[in-house]
Amino acid sequence: MDFGRVIGRVVLTRKDPKLEGLKLLVVQPINEHYEDQGQPLIAVDSVGAGASETVCYTTSRDASWPFGGESPIDACVTGIIDITTIDKTIGVDES
Length: 95
Description:
Layout: E1 2-10, E2 24-29, E3 41-45, E4 54-59, E5 75-80
Parallel strand pairs: 3-5
Antiparallel strand pairs: 1-2, 1-4, 2-3, 4-5
């Protein structure tokens, strides 16, 4: 699972019938400092995310699971992030 920010929507006049009724979002991947990382991607929205929201998304075969696993989906928004905290002491060797 990765973090991203919703930067737009995609509207299609024709698409695979298994995608009918699904909202497509443009997601900009971000790192743990909320900085852009890599190229934007198109993800199916499974949680009702909106513009500028920080989200978590998954890619590959796992992305189709919220829709029964049979849809032609490569990326899916699976959550809306409200708050993140990072404990910088985890994994630090004190010896």
